[in-house]
Amino acid sequence: MADKVKYEMEFVVHASPSLLYQYISTPSGLSEWYADNVNSRGEKFTFIWDGSEEVAHLITKKSGERIKMKWEEDEDEPYYFEMRIQVDEITKDVSLMITDFAEEDDIEEGKMLWENMISSLKQVLGST
Question: Which domain of life is it from (predicted)?
Answer without folding.
Answer: Bacteria
